[in-house]
Amino acid sequence: MKSAGFQTLLHASRTIKGIETIQAIYKQRRNFQTNFAFSVYNELQKLVTTA
Asked: Do the Cβ atoms of 26 and 38 come closer than 8 Å?
């Protein structure tokens, strides 16, 4: 039977860090922009481009 959860703590930790990063970007951009439209896809594209 396949587990529905994470296979290792490392995978869980990376996922949580990724979620926290997206939330931090969201909050930062929301604070600096008056006409704010947040897109997870666009933020991930920006992260991949800069990495």
From this structure: yes
The number of helix segments (H) and strand segments (E) in the chain equals 2, 0
pLDDT band at 34 (very low <50, low <70, confident <90, very high): low
Q: How many CB atoms lie within 10 A of CB 38?
A: 13
SS3 48: helix
Number of residues assigned to the chain: 51
pTM above 0.85, yes or no: no
Report whether pLDDT(19) > 80.
yes
Angle, CA 14 vertex, CA 13 and CA 15 arms, to 5°: 90
